[in-house]
């Protein structure tokens, strides 16, 4: 890769990759790693659920330049709420390595608000040595086109009638908008699932909804030249006011709008049957995200399963390791209020 502009005073640049559940953040990170051309990149991966699926997916993708120690997982919680306890010590440890990384990519969980994370770069110990080079927001194009994050006007009117002080009724919309408003660059991903007309319309609508001029680029599987992503030189930690949030003025935020659990399943016979059950469960229970690994009878390889809304994808990713229990584990994320027992039953069949 051509050397990208090094931000001020030799600070190590960090790129924050945000975007709603399943938008394509891990896919983008993988693409950047595959095209790093020897650049020493460290990855911090944060997940909402307690299982580190994204870290696993990145580790199993067989990129020569990417060693295990360059992927640091912050699972079990949301990075925006664990900044002091987990994120800052992790960054400190990276900086204190004999050979610190040349660039740090931070993949937030799909439910994280990016602003508290950007603010953390203002802490004195980090500020002197690192800068937020840019915030990249990955958008699930088809999900936006389907109105996934749009308000339901009737519901809003009903709720406002009950509570006139209400700011927003829609937790999905709120997270999605916070992620967009923090962006230095928006990737309108999954362009392969949209028509040209839809792409143009979405590009315009997203650009117009942003508080400042930000480029919106259509991508497929995060395929974009890393030179465009890295080296933006935004110094976002100095520019927080330009990135409004629904949670400005609050001390923290709650994640009780969303919940997650893990379903354990034994060996399955046919991936297609499992996927059919998952689809039905996702549609019936309005599940936002399902992902994990499953063992298939007679197969030495582990099956990686991914679902966003009712769109599923499965692929064998790596052999089960010697001594590793062939137990399937699927993370389920949905808005709170779901029927866990019914979802588990529907998935197990
Ligand atoms: N059709 C299509 N699928 C895509 C594209 N990019 C990613 N995907 C698929 O979308 C699913 C989710 O992708 P991820 O990269 O895991 O998404 P993520 O944002 O990291 O997900 P979370 O970490 O759970 O929030 C996977 O099945 C990907 O293969 C794309 O451009 N087109």
UniProtKB/TrEMBL annotation:
Catalytic function, reaction form: GTP + H2O = GDP + phosphate + H(+)
InterPro entries: CobW, CobW-likC_sf, CobW-like_C, CobW/HypB/UreG_nucleotide-bd, P-loop_NTPase, Zinc-reg_GTPase_activator
One family name in Pfam for this protein: cobW
One GO BP annotation of this record: cobalamin biosynthetic process
Segments forming domain CobW/HypB/UreG nucleotide-binding: 13-208
Keywords: Chaperone, Hydrolase, Nucleotide-binding
Molecular function, one GO term: nucleotide binding
Domain CobW C-terminal positions: 260-348
A GO-annotated cellular component: cytoplasm
Protein transport listed as a keyword: no
Gene3D superfamilies: CobW-like, C-terminal domain, P-loop containing nucleotide triphosphate hydrolases
Family: Belongs to the SIMIBI class G3E GTPase family. ZNG1 subfamily.
Role: Zinc chaperone that directly transfers zinc cofactor to target proteins, thereby activating them. Zinc is transferred from the CXCC motif in the GTPase domain to the zinc binding site in target proteins in a process requiring GTP hydrolysis.
Protein name, as recorded: Cobalamin biosynthesis protein CobW
Taxonomic lineage: Bacteria, Pseudomonadati, Pseudomonadota, Alphaproteobacteria, Hyphomicrobiales
């Amino acid at each position: 890769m051509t050397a990208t502009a090094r931000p001020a005073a030799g600070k190590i640049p960090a790129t924050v990759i945000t975007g709603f559940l399943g938008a394509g953040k891990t896919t983008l990170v993988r693409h950047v790693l595959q095209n790093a051309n020897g650049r020493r990149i460290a990855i911090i991966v944060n997940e909402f659920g307690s299982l580190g699926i994204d870290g696993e997916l990145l580790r199993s993708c067989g990129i020569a330049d990417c060693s295990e120690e360059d992927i640091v997982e912050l699972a079990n919680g949301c990075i925006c709420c664990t900044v002091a306890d987990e994120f800052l010590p992790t960054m400190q440890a990276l900086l204190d390595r004999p050979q610190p990384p040349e660039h740090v990519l931070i993949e937030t969980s799909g439910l994280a608000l990016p602003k508290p994370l950007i603010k953390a770069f203002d802490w004195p110990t980090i500020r002197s040595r690192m800068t937020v080079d840019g915030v990249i927001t990955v958008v699930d194009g088809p999900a936006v086109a389907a109105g996934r994050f749009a308000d339901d006007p009737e519901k809003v009117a009903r709720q406002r009638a009950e509570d006139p002080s209400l700011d927003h009724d829609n937790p999905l919309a709120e997270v999605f908008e916070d992620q967009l408003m923090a962006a230095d660059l928006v990737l309108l991903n999954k362009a392969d699932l949209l028509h040209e007309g839809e792409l143009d319309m979405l590009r315009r609508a997203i650009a117009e909804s942003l508080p400042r001029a930000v480029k919106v680029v259509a991508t497929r599987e995060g395929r974009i030249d890393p030179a465009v992503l890295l080296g933006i030189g935004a110094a976002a930690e100095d520019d927080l006011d330009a990135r409004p949030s629904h949670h400005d003025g609050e001390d923290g935020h709650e994640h009780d709008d969303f919940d997650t659990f893990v379903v354990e399943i034994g060996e399955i016979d046919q991936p297609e049957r499992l996927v059919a059950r998952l689809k039905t469960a996702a549609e019936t229970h309005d599940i936002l995200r399902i992902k994990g690994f499953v063992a298939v009878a007679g197969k030495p390889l582990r099956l990686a399963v991914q679902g966003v809304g009712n769109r599923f994808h499965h692929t064998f990713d790596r052999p089960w390791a010697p001594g590793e229990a062939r137990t399937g584990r699927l993370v389920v994320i949905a808005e709170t209020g779901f029927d866990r027992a019914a979802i588990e039953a529907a998935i197990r069949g």
